[in-house]
Amino acid sequence: MTTSFQGTKICVILPAHNEADLIGGVIRSLPEWVSSIVVVDDVSTDDTCAAVEALGDPRVTLVRHAENTGVGGAMVTGYKAALELDCDILVKMDADGQMAPSDLPRLIRPLVNGVAEYAKGNRFYVVNANSSMPAARKFGSVVLTFMTKMSSGYWHIFDSQCGYTAMRTHLLKMIDLDAIAQDYFFENDVLIWLNTANARVVDVPIKTLYGDEVSDVRISKVMWSFPPRLIRGWFFRVGRKYLLMDFGAIGALGLFGTALTAFGAIFGASRLIMSNITGVVTTTGTVMFAVLPLIVGIQCLLQAFVMEVAQSPGAEETRRYIHELIDSGDVG
Questions:
Q1: In this structure, are 89 and 188 located in the same domain?
Q2: 179 and 167, same structural domain?
Q3: DSSP structure class, residue 66
């Protein structure tokens, strides 16, 4: 029995909440070369734990939560447990059977080959691969993905809400797990943290299997609660990466551009208000004194934005990997 993939030990983490009917099939479908499986029961009220124990799979480590924390909290627990198992790559899968085990080799291969530290599934690459995805989820995924691109700085990734991911173990040790979001914002928050570590992230085409499972995610709640958190995440990432960790051209352009734009906007607005109050026409020189900083500031901010997009960690690796998959015919 093979217990590694090309000499690399793989651990699959399954956060589970009331998945008694599905989790057994998920575990049985995992390849034999998966070295370890960590199941985190997030206070299920059904027979999820009994279903896992009934399998008798020696690879499985079952961890029970005393309180329900959400998928993010379950993953933090799972990651911490996996760190004790001496594996090289940690894979996150859902316990509801929506993620095809046949996609697992494609997901972990960039990490095994050393071209990336983190791989994320993308359900939109392949035509009709996500045809069974509900329309509301498609719309929500597209909107949230664009916002996550800006917040995380990974402009080449798509389908940010996809939870089928793989991470190099050493990279996990660079993240403050206790600071990661404990709910469905988990995937987005991880991307924000990864960018501060300049981790190379690749997008990998995957399939998604929708059956009779019922999702706990409410699109309306997500669309209302995620944007403010993504904005806070953007401030955290930019401040940490470009000002504290490595103050360079992007940080300088951002600060300079923000200062000039703010000065031009505030000074111009104050002069306009004063002119309306007093009836005195603002002079051309005064107008230019407001407009020039505004124009230069916006240009600086645009240049910083363009530089960040161009430096999206893992963009070139993703393009090369997708081309390799297309050439080999292994796309969907």
A1: yes
A2: yes
A3: S
